[in-house]
Amino acid sequence: MAPYDPDFRFLVEVDVDVDAEVREVATGTDGIVPFSRIGRVDLPGIGRLDVWWLGSYGGGLFLPVKDAGTGSYGGGRYVLDTVKGADLGGGPDALVVDLNFAYSPSCAYDEAWACPLAGPGNTVSADVAVGERYRPVG
After folding, report:
1. Residue 87: which residues within 8 A CB-CB, separation 6 or more?
2. pLDDT, mean of residues 126-134
3. In whole angstroms, what is the distance from residue 15 CA to residue 114 CA?
């Protein structure tokens, strides 16, 4: 884990004026898991990221990020996954996005897991040098 850097914590509006998009992710244990794009956030100095809604068990916000850093899992990391309790707060007008809490998905460590990964709308050219750093197992 990289040291906490307050410059990577953002309180941002969610732009909900986005084209509808649905991603269906095949998983080994949960079948097809649907995600609907519900908005987009703009993180100054980082880039724009799509915000997704998990449309199955539990529901919740999902915000992955794939950055240009060498210490990140190649498929991206999760910043928010509220169905798993990763909710950093916010309100009706803004969302807390704290990249210090970005973590690698379970599929980074075990091929038995199939994870939803960051797509083009969640890929940035910045190096997000905070959060969990990836070290391959083995």
Report:
1. 60, 61, 80
2. 90
3. 29
